[in-house]
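Changelog-adjacent note: as of this version, every example in the card shows the full chain rather than a window. The one below runs 201 residues end to end.
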Amino acid sequence: MITEMKKRKYTQKRRADKQQQTRERIIDAAMFLHEKLGPAATTISALAEHAGVQRLTVYRHFENEEELFNACTTKWLGQNPPPGLPENNSAGPADRTHTFLLSLYRYYRRTRKMWTVAYRDVEQVPALAGPMKGFNDYLAAIAGELAAGWSVQNSKRLQLTLGHAVRFATWRSLSEQKLSDRVMADLVCRWVRAVADDSSL
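Full-length structure tokens:
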């Protein structure tokens, strides 16, 4: 009896491990195809073929696109986490803003392929709305914290400026001018400082 129970538990564990491995293969295939083709152009058939499974297997692990996209986003962001604010709170607001923007712009350069297709396809793929909102909320929160650090009267205008500064579209527009990430951070920080210093805005 004890031997049979051990065998049953072992069999169940192997089955669970195999199912988890299959799920991870599907997620990895989705991340690869999303970055290569874009979410809108990634079909379930292509996903199943790349993962080496049947279409039915994909649906068995993910009941809908929202579940699949949430799993992909969680794993991709775990592998490519966006930067947080500098831990050195003694730095002045200008230095703190510059340090963060440089980190963020370097992050965008490393991950530009995925963000390009994600922002391009978000209007076409409803399942992308949730994950993209999560990232945009992170950017808005960062902009708010940076603006608060300046302690200026026109904080609303400053927050709007910083909100634009942290956007992927802003980085992409500047990168098309062949500017380095450091030059971009320098340029944007001058703009931020001008807004912070101008009490007439």
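Structural remarks: The mean pLDDT is 89.
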